[in-house]
Amino acid sequence: MPHLLVIGASQGIGLETVKAALAAGHRVRAFARSAAKIDLSDPNLERFPGDALSSADVTGALQGVDAVVQALGVPARDLLGPVRLFSDATNVLVPAMEKAGVRRLVAVTGFGAGDSRAAIGPLQRLPFRLVFGRAYDDKDAQEIRIRQSGLDWTLVRPGVLTGGAATGRYRVLDRPSSWKNGLIARADVARFIVAEIADNAHVGRPVVLISHALPL
């Protein structure tokens, strides 16, 4: 079983990935500034407080792991100002992984990042740009840096995220012609990530994830 480092592990998709990975029997190093507050009990869980923008913290967290899941997020209140977290953290992580010899990276960005932006429906483009434009410009830079690396990467672009338990009924859209927006539970995104770490089915490729419900 791979030893996973989950960056952004204290909430959202990161926390759901920690749960799913532990359920699958993985050893998990949960990296976040508030990692000590993660309310889970499992002998395979290691809480690792750290800052994703700190080279020293990230380098320390990479020791002894086999794969990395990058699942960063920013608070909604920060979306209207400049966003640099995704690219800045990736500019720390990628060279640290290359130096440490850790090759496998699964990075969560979002539907609308990179070349999936062209698949946004015409009625959604203006509100998407107004609300998420700055964040997704930074996610574009994040994806470019990952693509330029020598890592074995997969870019995960979920649609509109929902809460609740995993359903196991989601679609993995791995061809640009199939990309569309839709709802998906964070827990289902986490299930896909853990499965991808195990089978490496989409190395060097971006995928869009949505549920089997009707697309938006």
Structure, briefly:
The chain is an alpha/beta fold and 216 residues long. It has helices at residues 12-23, 55-61, 85-100, 122-147, 186-199, and strands at residues 3-7, 27-32, 45-49, 67-70, 104-108, 152-158, 160-162, 170-173, 183-185, 205-211.
Give a verbal description of the structure.
- It comes from Methylobacterium ajmalii.
- InterPro entries: NAD(P)-bd_dom (IPR016040), NAD(P)-bd_dom_sf (IPR036291).
- Pfam families: NAD_binding_10.
- This is NAD(P)H-binding protein.
- The chain is α/β, with parallel strands linked by helices.
- The chain has one domain (about 5-210): 3-Layer(aba) Sandwich (Rossmann fold), CATH 3.40.50.720.
- Helices cover about 35% and strands about 25% of the residues.
- The chain contains five helices and ten strands; from the N terminus they run βαββαβαβαββββαβ.
- The chain has helices at about 10-25, 55-60, 85-100, 120-145, 185-200; strands at about 5, 25-30, 45-50, 65-70, 105-110, 150-160, 160, 170-175, 185, 205-210.
- The strands form two sheets. The protein has an eight-stranded mixed sheet, sandwiched between helices. A two-stranded parallel sheet has the order 7-9.
- Helix 1 links the parallel strand 1 and strand 2 (about 25-30).
- Helix 1 (about 10-25) packs across helix 5 and helix 3 packs parallel to helix 4.
- The longest helix is centred in the middle third of the chain and has 26 residues, at about 120-145.
- The radius of gyration is 16 Å and the shape is globular.
- The N and C termini lie far apart (about 35 Å).
- About 45% of the residues are buried.
